[in-house]
Specification:
Layout: H1 14-30, E1 38-39, H2 41-48, H3 52-64, E2 68-71, E3 75-78, H4 83-106, H5 112-128, H6 131-149, H7 152-166, H8 179-194, H9 198-224, H10 230-238
Antiparallel strand pairs: 1-3, 2-3
Length: 244
């Protein structure tokens, strides 16, 4: 593993724990960490030059999301992600975020200014080719919709699920679609919410999440070298779960 030094912070800080999570995610994506192999918590703390406390906190959050597994007195392993995992994650997100989009469009305070600002920020990040900013704003946009719907617990669940897909290297940019494509998928969601059209908001959100889920299933299949047809596998795995 490469050995970047983490910035120290006064608070243990969730900021350090989050950096640990991002480091593990990046290491899995790059191949420096491999699913199934055993890794030492102590060694990870040494590599990152921080105490074991934020390392354990970050790893605990990854464990809660089902991304790593601790082995008592031995260390931890990265849990392999399967197409079935991806399909389940997006089935849950669809069940939570489609009704949330409908409710957000019906709410008196639809967070119009917030949604407009975040969407414009995504467009600017797309033009700049800034991966990190683009997907942080993507997360912020979905969270703002959930907030507008009043779905506090759903926001927490979706955030954990998004952590799960980030560990996949969950960007479909460059492999399957571009930033502009993703922006175009969000536009009808935001427009419908701003316009108070709850049915259109729900349909657009479902279409966006189904599209993303299908592409990520295909991405996992590409990485594992499995021969399944991605579209057929998605249909089979999500049968009975999706709203339409």
């Amino acid at each position: 593993m490469s050995e970047p030094r983490l910035a120290r912070s006064a608070s243990v800080d969730f900021s350090l724990a989050k950096q640990v999570m991002e480091y593990v995610r990046a290491a899995v994506i790059s191949g420096d960490m491999n699913p199934g192999e055993l890794y030492s918590v102590y060694r990870l703390a040494e590599v990152l030059q921080v105490s074991r406390s934020p390392v354990r906190e970050g790893l605990l959050r990854l464990e809660e999301a089902g991304l790593i597994r601790f082995e008592r007195n031995r260390g931890f392993r990265v849990v392999p992600t399967t197409p079935s995992d991806v399909a389940e994650i997006f089935s849950i997100r669809i069940a939570l975020e489609v009704p949330a989009a409908r409710r957000a469009a019906q709410a008196e305070d639809r967070h119009v200014a917030k949604l407009t600002d975040v969407r414009e920020g995504m467009r600017e990040a797309a033009r700049a080719g800034d991966d990190e900013l683009f997907f942080e704003l993507d997360r912020e946009l979905h969270d703002a919709i959930l907030a507008a719907s009043g779905a506090r617990r759903a926001r927490e669940v979706v955030e954990r699920l998004r952590i799960s897909t980030r560990l996949l290297g969950a960007s479909t940019v460059r492999t399957h679609r571009g930033y502009e494509d993703i922006c175009r998928e969000h536009d009808p969601i935001v427009d419908a919410i701003i316009g108070g059209d709850s049915e259109s908001a729900g349909r657009a959100m479902e279409s966006h999440l189904v599209s993303t889920g299908q592409l990520l299933v295909a991405q996992v299949l590409d990485r594992t070298g499995e021969a399944d047809d991605a579209a057929a596998l998605w249909e089979r795995l999500t049968e009975g779960y999706l709203l339409s």
